[in-house]
């Protein structure tokens, strides 16, 4: 379920989502087959253990039979013991073979599962690295475009700045004109004063 519900982040020019979903579905199916096979092997192992217990019980029954048979005939007892021993050995060998076969199958399935998991992890790491490389390339491209925009803006005329400069120049010109006008008015006032004084002196004479 973890593999089936895995949600990858979206990115520009990323991998095909359908292909990723198909790949994950295949992985999920393989894992499900693995778990089913493992359960089946466990059931076979349990059956083998039960069979072994039954054979052990059978051996005990044979031993009891042999004890009873010893009372009747030594020969029958010897043959019975021989048969019981053979049966026990064959049963033990058969159980051991089944257990060994089940363990080998389980080990192989586990190893295959580890290999598949390593492949999935490696593929995921590769996707992450490619995503990071792509994002770095996008970042470099955007920074380059921003630098070009800044350079272009710096070369364009600035109407607001020009208008402000014109206002400053106009203000300075008005102040200069006012100062010149005030400076020219002072000599005329002094001359008028001198003329008035001269006229007064002439009247007194």
What does this structure look like?
The chain has 205 residues and is mainly alpha-helical. The chain is built from three helices and no strands. Helix 1 runs antiparallel to helix 2 (74-155). The mean pLDDT is 79.
Please provide a brief summary of the model:
This protein is mainly alpha-helical and 205 residues long. It has helices at residues 17-72, 74-155, 159-204.
Layout of SSEs?
Layout: H1 17-72, H2 74-155, H3 159-204
Helix pairs in contact: 1-2
Order of helices and strands: HHH
Radius of gyration computed on alpha carbons: 54 Å
Our estimate of the beta-strand percent is under 5%
Task: Note the main sheet.
Answer: none
How much helicity do the residues have?
over 70%
Query: N- to C-terminal separation?
Result: 130 Å
- Count of DSSP H/I helices: 3
Descriptive labels:
205 residues, mainly alpha, 3 helices, 0% strand
